[in-house]
């Protein structure tokens, strides 16, 4: 079941160039409330790799309570107190104090104890801001490359611009120059470990 969690804020962020999504995790507490995670990235702060996760508990009426957030670097920040969370989940003090039980405080916080920045969200954020160029585009262009790896491949690269030896974004004078470069590499392709095939490419307007 997909619902709009704090969607006004996410939409406002999207209009400013942010990228976000919402994912259901599980039912929690005696009242079986829904635990959701929102992920947001800022494509204008990619040098720092800015991503953020926030966890919400949503009741049957759709009321949202932000319980924690994590930016991947500073760890988890608790937004509400343990006592407020216990009451929200409907646990007794004895249940909440039992660290070895499903109803225990530590068991809940373990669910939101970490957030790993993979770069996937940042890549998606960048992709959302790209403007495709065509043959009639009169201006410099870049090439956006999306790797094609099997799911679960460890350390698989994320989508990014084609870059030169100094890790700067490669720029072509026009669309045709970039297309000619892509055509030069149109022969047999040797896959890396975990790679399913050749990357896909987009010729986009240069920043």
Describe what this molecule looks like in 3D:
- There is one protein chain.
- The protein is of the alpha+beta class and 207 residues long.
- The chain has two domains: 7-111, no CATH class; 130-205, no CATH class.
- 24% of the residues lie in helices and 29% in strands.
- It has six helices and eight strands, in the order αβββββααααββαβ.
- Strands 1-2-3-4-5 form a five-stranded antiparallel sheet. Strands 7-6-8 form a three-stranded antiparallel sheet, with helices on both faces.
- It is elongated, with a radius of gyration of 22 Å.
Brief sketch in words of this structure:
This protein is α+β, with helices and mostly antiparallel strands and 207 residues long. Helix content is 24%, strand content 29%. It folds into two domains: 105 residues, no CATH class; 76 residues, no CATH class.
Give the arrangement of secondary structure elements.
Layout: H1 7-15, E1 19-28, E2 33-41, E3 51-58, E4 64-70, E5 76-78, H2 82-89, H3 93-97, H4 105-111, H5 120-129, E6 141-149, E7 160-161, H6 175-184, E8 195-205
Antiparallel strand pairs: 1-2, 2-3, 3-4, 4-5, 6-7, 6-8
């Amino acid at each position: 079941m997909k619902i709009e969690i704090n969607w006004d804020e996410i939409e406002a962020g999207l209009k400013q160039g942010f990228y976000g999504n919402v994912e259901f995790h599980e039912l929690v507490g005696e009242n079986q409330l829904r635990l959701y995670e929102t992920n947001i990235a800022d494509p204008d702060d990619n040098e720092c790799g800015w991503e953020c996760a926030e966890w919400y508990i949503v009741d049957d009426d759709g009321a949202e309570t932000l319980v924690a957030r994590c930016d991947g670097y500073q760890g988890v920040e608790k937004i509400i107190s343990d006592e407020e969370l216990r009451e929200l989940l409907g646990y007794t003090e004895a249940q909440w104090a039992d660290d070895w039980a499903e109803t225990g405080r530590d068991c809940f916080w373990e669910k939101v104890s970490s957030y790993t920045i993979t770069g996937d969200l940042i890549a998606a954020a960048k992709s959302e801001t790209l403007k495709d160029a065509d043959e009639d585009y009169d201006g410099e262009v870049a090439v956006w490359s999306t790797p094609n790896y099997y799911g679960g491949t460890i350390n698989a690269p994320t989508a990014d611009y084609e870059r030169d030896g100094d890790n700067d974004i490669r720029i072509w004078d026009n669309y045709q120059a970039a297309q000619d470069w892509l055509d030069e590499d149109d022969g047999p392709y040797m896959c890396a470990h975990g790679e399913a095939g050749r990357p896909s490419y987009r010729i986009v307007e240069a920043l």
